Amino acid sequence: MGELFTFFGLYREDHVFIFLTHMLLAAGIVIILARMATANLRLVPTGTQNVLEAYLNGVLAMGTDVMGKTEARRYLPLVATIGLFVGVANIIGIIPGFEAPSAFLDFTLALALVVFTYYNFEGIRRNGLITYFKHFMGPVWWLAWLMFPIEIVSHISRVISLSFRLFGNVKGDDMFLMVILMLAPWLLPMIPFALLTFMAFLQAFIFMMLTYVYLGGAVLLSDDH
């Protein structure tokens, strides 16, 4: 978004460059946090280890409500990593001089495609190709001709839903922050900063929750209908 000032934009004002630098920055922060948390593991956690353990326990509890503790633990690394990555990517955009990578459709669409591909792969791997796609036909055999194309469209629409929900919300937050900073650049933005921080974490939570829901629907076919 060229109308926003970014530190990386001083070097090169290019959509791809701005996106890649901020995405790599978010990834680097996530890696640093992970290394800090695991550099000196203790039985009684402190500092970064304590924060990330609390985060992982929260993600596991969320997944347990969706698909049971055993399955939630199986997919915890994927969901927790996505949530941390999205959360950091969202937070970056709140800091003046930086732009959220999640405000680019390239970022959100890539994540949505990863989730879409992975949960379908897991559904086929865990249940078999025939059983998995038979599940698309619904519980009533004589409605299979109608349910199958509806399910296909529904699953494809999840990519659009995941990507555009995150992109639209973060992009809107960036525009809102830009207007606030132009109108009242000093004291007034403190309240919007708090609101945008909450929204950044909320969007990461929604993305994680939907990932768990889609995984649960794909691997737990016996409980789906």
Describe this protein's structure.
With 225 residues, the protein is mostly helical. The chain has one domain. The chain has eight helices and no strands. Helix 1 packs across helix 2 and helix 5 packs parallel to helix 8. The chain is globular. The N and C termini lie far apart (44 Å).
Concise overview:
With 225 residues, this protein is mainly α. The chain has helices at residues 15-38, 47-67, 69-74, 76-92, 105-127, 129-134, 144-183, 190-219. It has one domain.
Query: Sheet bearing the most strands, described?
Result: none
| Helical content band | over 70%
Q: Taking Cα atoms only, what radius of gyration do you get, to the nearest Å?
A: 20 Å
Specify the number of helices: 8
| Unreliable stretches | none
Domain tally = 1
The overall strand count is 0
Mean pLDDT: 86
Order of helices and strands: HHHHHHHH
Strand content: under 5%
Backbone structural class = mainly alpha
Distance between the termini: 44 Å
Shape: globular
Set down the secondary structure blueprint.
Layout: H1 15-38, H2 47-67, H3 69-74, H4 76-92, H5 105-127, H6 129-134, H7 144-183, H8 190-219
Question: What are the main properties of this structure?
Answer:
225 residues, mainly alpha, 74% helix
